[in-house]
Amino acid sequence: MTTVLTIHGPNLGTLGNRQPEIYGGVSLDDINTSIAKVAGSWGWEVVTLQSNHEGAIIDFLEERAPRANGVLINPGALAHYGLSLRDALAALTIPVVEVHLTNIHAREEWRHRSVTAEVAHGIISGFAWRSYTLGLEALRNLIQEEPRGV
Q1: How many CA atoms lie within 13 A of 86 on its CB side?
Q2: The whole model's pTM is what?
Q3: Which 8-state DSSP code applies to residue 25?
Q4: How far apart are CA 114 and CA 99, in angstroms?
Q5: Distance CA 6, CA 50 (A)
Q6: Active-site pick, 53, 80, 81, 100
Q7: What is the pLDDT of residues 92-119, one digit of tens each?
Q8: In sequence order, what E strands does the chain have?
Q9: Dihedral in degrees, nearest 10, Cα atoms 58, 84, 72, 149
Q10: 100 is catalytic
Q11: Are 84 and 62 in contact (CB under 8 A)?
Q12: Is 132 part of the annotated catalytic residue set?
C-alpha cells in the first residue's frame, strides 16, 4: 500500500480560529479529512502529524519515512528558518511536496524564502486548504513516476 506522511508545522493546529482573514475558516481536522478522502480513493494510507516542535517533526520523519512513499508538508514558519528540518527533508529518498495556505510571495518579505522548499520536489502556495489536495495530486504524480518498493 502506498503511504504518505502529512506533516503540519507550528500553529497549524489552530486553523479555523487563527486569523481566518488570512488562513481561512477551514480547520485542520477538515483539511486532514479532505486529504484522507482523496488518498483513500486511490487506496492510499495517510499518516498525519501536527507539531509545534521542529525536533518532533524530524523524529517523525526519521521513524516513518523509511516505510513511506512520499511526504506532504506544510512546515509553517519553519519553512523560513528550520534548517534542521531542511536537512532532514534533504536526507529523504522519497518525494517531498511543500504546501502553504497563503501565497508566501505576496506576504511579508521574510516569508518569501523557504529553506525547506529548496529540498522539496516542488511547492504549492496560495490556494488555501486546496493547496493540500493539489499537493497530494502532485505527490501522486511523483510517486507514480518514481516507484519505490516498501
Answers
A1: 14
A2: 0.90
A3: S
A4: 11
A5: 8
A6: 100
A7: 999 999 999 878 775 667 666 789 989 9
A8: 3-8, 45-50, 70-74, 96-100, 122-125
A9: -70
A10: yes
A11: no
A12: no
